[in-house]
Amino acid sequence: MSPTDSEPPRARVAEARRNRQNLIAVATKAFSLSSERVSLEEIAKQAGVGIGTLYRHFPTRESLVEAVYHDQEDRLRTGALELLATHPPTEALRLWMDLFVDWAVTKHGMIDTLRVIISSGRLEFAQMRAELVAVVRMFLDAGITEGEIRPDADAETIAATLAGILTVAGETEQRDQTARMLSLLVDGLRPIV
Predict the structure, then answer these.
(1) What is the model's pTM?
(2) Nearest one of 179, 166, 40 to 106, comparing CA atoms
(3) Domain with 147 in it: what CATH number?
(4) Is 118 helix (H, G, I), strand (E, B) or coil?
(5) Which domain holds residue 161?
(6) Which is nearest to 157 in space by CA: 165, 147, 148, 145?
(7) What is the tens place of the pLDDT at every residue in 52-86?
(8) How many domains are there within the chain?
(9) Minimal CA–CA distance to 148: which of 186, 180, 98?
(10) Cα→Cα distances 166→11, 169, 181, Å
(11) Sign of torsion, CA 142 143 145 146?
């Protein structure tokens, strides 16, 4: 048997990739809509696959939650780059903050599992924070260069403020208040004239 005979056909690989992405998308939505523990069986059913397919891709609840977390993290980073390429820096930052709030909401139904993953060391809180600070710094650097953001703006402080806003106004029913607080934050970053 040649090595190519033992490899799955391209169509099977493509289907497996689609199933994995679909499971992540369905899990993301399920976790964002419920603060209760969502069953893996329900996620598989909504994704249109059997539970065996889910377990082939994600052997544990933790592995699915970790995949959702990384997928959303990638979307935040990609969204930041796209927004900076198409909008002025302060407008891009404010729009990205809405993406960040959406990202935070997806964690509601997986917060207990995320805590387990963090305590196991597979995800490090310091690394998560550093990634957030790095994205915020991209916006600040672009805004400072364009003269739209005060030169003393600090990415660590902005990241901490974002976390604080979500702590006091991070529920879905508080969306209007969250939006007002984020707009005030961005307004406070503008240069003093």
Answers:
(1) 0.76
(2) 166
(3) 1.10.357.10
(4) helix
(5) 3-189
(6) 165
(7) 999 999 999 889 988 988 888 888 899 999 999 99
(8) 1
(9) 186
(10) 43, 5, 10
(11) positive
